[in-house]
Write a structure and sequence with these properties.
2 helices
């Protein structure tokens, strides 16, 4: 699979995706929590991109070799080594910088590849001694990848990510979704759910036909719908994307059009 195809496909973006903070509306603190959810989902997706984007075969050894040999993001700070006898790759991060405020990111991830009974590829990952900005962070993943045809892939399963935000609160994100990826059109479509907790608050996200295509190596504007519900309070926000650089946001303060950071 082309290394560009999974970039951010493994992310169900949350409240304020590419939006100004004011676009979220709601009660005081809602915007910050929404941005924390967005960051957690994007950070988790970036990690998954690093671990799965090179995969183009259901064979565990071939997949492990591809991940170990691929050109990686972030450049210059991540090293990886394949076990000489097993389909296992060890990734070492050394003061990396990632998306949405992920800085001084260090630690180790062990990635294990195995063949499922149905012939699909299972990819498991677990972090060890991971930190961001000096605070503990964790990542785990359990995804199944099916090479459906010469150009299409199905990715499904779960992942979890924790870190500490600028306020010292623990941010935890977990998701379960299915992504359909087309190497020919360079499009991916995500359906599923995710939950992000920020301190005592929780944001539940549902992704419906959330689709992004790439042109000349750059992600285009999305289409589809993201729905978010925050508790306590049951504050609900729905973001509708139509493939342009504008989105419709409907929330506690009504509906409005907002600009996206995309092209």
């Amino acid at each position: 699979m082309s290394s560009t195809l999974f970039r951010r496909s493994l992310t169900i973006l949350s409240l304020c995706v590419g939006l100004s903070a004011a676009a979220c509306g709601g009660a005081a603190g809602t915007d910050d929590d929404g941005n924390d959810a967005n960051a957690a989902m994007s950070q988790s997706g970036a990690v998954e991109f690093m671990l799965t984007s090179p995969v183009s075969s259901n064979d565990p050894a071939t997949a492990a070799s591809a991940v170990a040999a691929a050109q990686w993001w972030p450049a210059g700070c991540a090293t990886r080594a394949k076990d000489p006898t097993q389909p296992i790759v060890t990734v070492t991060l050394n003061n990396c910088t990632g998306p949405f405020g992920l800085v001084k990111w260090s630690g180790t991830m062990t990635v294990t590849f195995a063949k499922n009974a149905d012939g699909s590829l299972n990819v498991k990952a677990a972090s060890t001694n991971m930190t961001t900005t000096g605070s503990p962070a964790t990542f785990s993943m359990d995804r199944n990848i099916t090479v459906d045809a010469s150009t299409t892939r199905t990715v499904k399963g779960t992942s979890a990510w924790t870190r500490t935000n600028a306020n010292g609160e623990t941010v935890t994100h977990a998701n379960s979704w299915t992504a359909m990826v087309d190497a020919a059109t360079k499009c991916r479509t995500v359906n599923g759910t995710g939950t992000t907790t920020v301190g005592t608050k929780a944001i539940a996200t549902t992704s419906k036909d959330y689709k992004i295509c790439r042109t000349n190596g750059i992600d285009g504007c999305p289409s589809g719908t993201l729905t978010h519900v925050m508790t306590p309070g049951n504050l609900a926000v729905t973001i509708s994307f139509d493939g342009t650089s504008n989105a419709s946001v409907t929330g506690p303060n009504g509906s409005r059009k907002v600009a996206l950071v995309c092209q």
